[in-house]
Design goal:
mainly alpha; 865 residues; disordered C terminus; 65% helix; 7 strands
């Protein structure tokens, strides 16, 4: 209905009032759904009549007082001029006192026009209704205008009420409808079409609800809009309110017949209430127009009634053949227990919710099923599934669910199929010992399932790799040499083919790890970041954490300590209780490693003080954490502690058969700590051992080995080893290790008396360390430097051999990239003079050409301007 339509209805009222003031009689019935403005219309009409000299008597029927005799007549009497109308009750003779009230009303109308308004006439008590109908019949001879409002779909006490009104010769019916889109837009007073369309959809065009939305555009819980809807529902009476409760429970499911069966009423009664709510714009189909309203109705219900309705709804929906996820919604709301059909429905529903991307709902279904299940094997199977799914939300929750199944498995009560599923989950968590135990028991139960010989811990890597479902590529079973090329291609093919789901996330993680360890950090970074973004898009913070953790590892492997710190810290910030998780504790190890490289040792100590799972060392993630503890101990001057940590990493990796320097170079870590303790012989054995392993062909592993080995040699041999180490590390992407090797080489050159080259190399090491965020390394390279960028430049320049002033100017411009001719023009000398200066500069600095000019000279170019 438009605002123009409402103006037309008011005009009809004014015509009726004009006739009444002229001595005629009018009977007006104003109809409309709840909230559509009937009371507002009558209030405006009464105000208009009063302003024009009429006496207005007002009353309103209510469902609560419908059984109070003469309640409406009493309201009319008390609303008129003092003592003009008698109080109709308490009465001893209904007929006599009704006549007395009507007679007094007639006398009042002899001297003034009377407008009698009764709102919500469907709730008039029976004695008042009979009296008012009598007045209507006799109103042909009195100056009275009677105005009644009633709900379109309301059921009054007397079904002939409207018929009696229509018998009057001057009867008018005014129908108030909901607002249309243009009328809602007018109420917005200049709002956008999008805003008005949204308000129309949420309010259904109900004027009362539109006004509530103007005060509550965000539809807050328990806000004005929800309260307005509740008020409308209550004004419709108890039967309609109960129907609204049923609709809130069903939330759009089923039909009017289902709603009636749920509430124990006839389909016709349910349909009548549904029609009334629909006419008021309160519902769209069988669903309230906004979830806040549904929540408000459910919140008002008695808990026992709400639970009972949800339990009954679950049974009815199952009988009607509804999908499992619709039945499960009621089971979750009621905590349904007892029926044998509940468990399979919940498990099926979990799969359906997952297909919709509703991970929270899937978890809720399985948690309820887990709590209801009494069969040990089925309960364990549900627990494994819960661990897989909750990994998307919370790694710690995933670990807790799996821990319960591990306890059951150690009791020896799980069948082979559950053991294999449990092994999958343990492999995903990197828990090698527990996974191996499950695989051994599974193989013993079904020797044909595992293509392996005698099940021993030492033989588990290949079997774990097979079970990892990553196209035979797992980070703990990395191929060597040329064999790695198919593995890399296979990993990238897998990543191109899969999306992020509960069944593909672990293979994708394994593939990214393979790229990191085999193909290098740069090759893995784009994939880890892309999959982290996809996990965020899926609303899966747990999966995001796993891929972001790999991003942090890749950045650390590139030597970007600052970037790795930021990435790892961001992950842990999302999970306040990260220390309950194996995976997140591993990421904490990455954070400690990065902070230690940056020289932020106190910050690293704070992270190390946080608790971690007691059996963290039983997980691959624990190795990274223990290595980080060792690196921190070494940095703070506790080499004994550092050696213990590094050797423990080695013992665990060797026991598992997963001793790969590409993943964790524990031997060179331990060798560095042993050098601090003065045990050069043990350090030499460890480095030699690592150089003899296949992974030593990797530039990163080889470069680190040579850098540590150089510290065991005399100064001459050390120089050659460090040059080779620098060449290897330049190909490895690890800028931090490169800076470390350059720093050692710079000191070695200084010992050899080659101060010019020492300065050049040290400057390069200092610059690269800054790019990595490794401030502690910068301070070791250049003790006492400040944050002023000019200070290090001056200190490095000061370390160069003495150049004359003219040579200094030529060298500075040449280092800046100017050609000989450009230098000559700027310094007003000949090109030949420039060439002579450069020859002397190269000789003094002992370099081959301008490409080797110290970069520190570039800082002085502004002084020549």
């Amino acid at each position: 209905m438009t605002s123009m339509n409402r103006s037309a209805e008011l005009a009809r009222w004014e015509l009726a009032l004009d006739a009444s003031l002229a001595g005629d009689v009018a009977v007006i019935l104003v109809e409309g759904a709840v909230g559509c403005g009937k009371s507002t219309f009558v209030a405006a009409a009464a105000e208009d009549a009063t302003a024009r000299g009429a006496v207005v008597l007002r009353a309103a029927g209510t469902a609560r007082e419908q059984t109070v005799p003469f309640g409406v007549l009493r309201q009319l009497a008390f609303s008129g001029p003092l003592d003009w109308l008698p109080d109709p009750g308490p009465l001893h003779s209904e007929q006599g006192d009704s006549v007395r009230f009507a007679s007094a009303l007639r006398q009042l109308s002899d001297s003034v026009t009377v407008v009698l308004c009764v709102d919500d006439a469907q709730y008039i008590d029976a004695p008042s209704l009979r009296c008012l109908l009598g007045i209507v019949r006799s109103a042909q001879t009195v100056s009275i205008t009677l105005v009644f409002t009633t709900s379109v779909h309301g059921r009054g006490t007397d079904p002939h009420f409207a018929t009696e009104l229509m018998r009057h010769s001057n009867f008018s019916r005014i129908r108030l409808e909901r607002l249309d889109r243009s009328a809602v837009r007018d109420m917005l007073d200049g709002g956008s079409t999008g805003d008005s369309d949204r308000m129309y959809e949420v309010s259904g065009g109900n004027p009362l609800l539109v006004r509530a939305l103007l005060d509550d555009p965000g539809v807050e819980p328990e806000g004005p809009f929800a309260q307005a809807v509740l008020a409308c529902l209550h004004s419709c009476g108890q039967a309609t309110w109960e129907l609204a409760e049923g609709l809130a429970v069903l939330d759009g499911q089923g039909t009017a017949a289902l709603a009636g069966e749920l509430l124990g009423v006839s389909t016709a009664a349910a349909q009548q209430a549904i029609t009334a709510l629909g006419a008021a714009g309160l519902i769209d189909g069988l669903r309230f127009r906004h979830p806040a309203v549904t929540a408000a109705v459910l919140d008002r219900m008695d808990t026992a009634r709400r639970v009972d309705l949800h339990q009954r709804a679950a049974a009815l929906c199952r009988r009607a053949g509804s999908p499992a996820h619709e039945i499960a919604r009621h089971l979750l709301a009621s905590g349904h227990a007892g029926a044998a059909w509940v468990l399979p429905v919940l498990r099926t529903a979990a799969g359906q919710f997952l297909s919709f991307g509703a991970v929270d709902q899937a978890v809720a279904c399985l948690e309820l099923a887990h709590g209801l299940c009494v069969d040990i094997a089925e309960r364990a199977e549900i627990g494994v599934r819960l661990s897989q799914i909750t990994a998307a939300l919370s790694p710690a929750a995933s670990d807790r669910h799996l821990a319960q199944v591990v306890v059951a498995s150690r009791a020896g009560s799980l069948p082979d199929s559950v053991l294999r599923s449990l092994a999958d989950g343990l492999i995903a968590q990197g828990r090698i010992d527990d996974a191996a135990s499950c695989l051994e028991r599974s193989a013993a139960a079904d020797s044909g399932h595992w293509a392996a010989d005698a099940p021993t811990v030492a033989s588990t890597p290949a079997r774990l790799a097979e079970q990892a479902r990553t196209h035979a590529v797992a980070p703990w079973a990395l191929p060597y040499g040329k064999e790695q090329d198919p593995a890399l291609s296979s990993a990238e093919d897998l990543l191109r083919a899969v999306s992020v789901t509960s069944s593909t996330v672990e293979p994708a993680l394994q593939a990214v790890r393979t790229l990191l360890y085999l193909g290098g950090p740069q090759r893995s970074l784009s994939w880890s970041r892309a999959f982290a973004d996809r996990a965020d898009d899926r609303g899966a913070p747990g999966w995001h954490a796993a891929f972001a953790g790999l991003t942090a590892q890749a950045l650390l492997r590139q030597g970007d300590a600052a970037g790795a710190r930021a990435e790892a810290a961001a992950v842990l910030d999302r999970f306040p209780h990260w220390y309950d998780s194996y995976q997140l504790s591993g990421i904490a190890g990455t954070l400690v490693h990065a902070l230690t490289a940056m020289g932020r040792l106190e910050d690293a100590a704070v992270v190390l003080d946080c608790p971690v799972p007691e059996d963290l060392d039983d997980s691959m993630h624990g190795l990274a954490h223990r290595r980080a503890r060792g690196l921190h101990a070494l940095a703070v001057g506790h080499p004994h502690t550092a050696v213990e940590h590094f050797l423990e990493v080695g013992r665990i990796m060797t026991r598992w058969g997963l001793d790969r320097a590409r993943a964790l170079p524990w031997r060179t870590d331990a060798a560095e700590a042993l050098l601090r303790l003065g045990d050069a012989e043990w350090a030499r054995r460890l480095v030699t051992e690592q150089l003899g392993m296949p992974d030593a062909a990797d530039p990163w592993v080889h470069g680190i080995c040579l850098r540590v080995q150089a510290a065991l040699c005399g100064v001459g041999a050390r120089s050659a080893l460090l040059r080779t180490a620098i060449d290897e590390l330049s190909r490895s992407e690890d800028r931090y290790e490169l800076a470390l090797a350059l720093a050692h080489y710079g000191r070695t050159l200084k010992e050899l008396g080659d101060s010019a080259r020492s300065t050049i190399v040290s400057r390069r090491a200092w610059t690269i360390a800054g790019e990595c965020g490794a401030e502690s390394l910068r301070r070791r390279i250049l003790p006492g430097y400040s944050d002023d960028p000019a200070v290090p430049s001056r200190m490095f320049v000061a370390g160069l051999p003495k150049l004359s002033a003219s040579e200094q100017r030529v060298a500075t411009l040449a280092a800046h990239g100017d050609t000989n001719r450009e230098i000559a023009l700027k310094l007003y000398i000949t090109v030949s003079t420039v060439e002579q200066h450069l020859t002397r500069i190269y000789r003094k600095l002992e370099i081959a050409g301008r490409q080797q000019l110290p970069s520190a000279l570039r800082a002085d170019v502004t002084a020549l301007a």
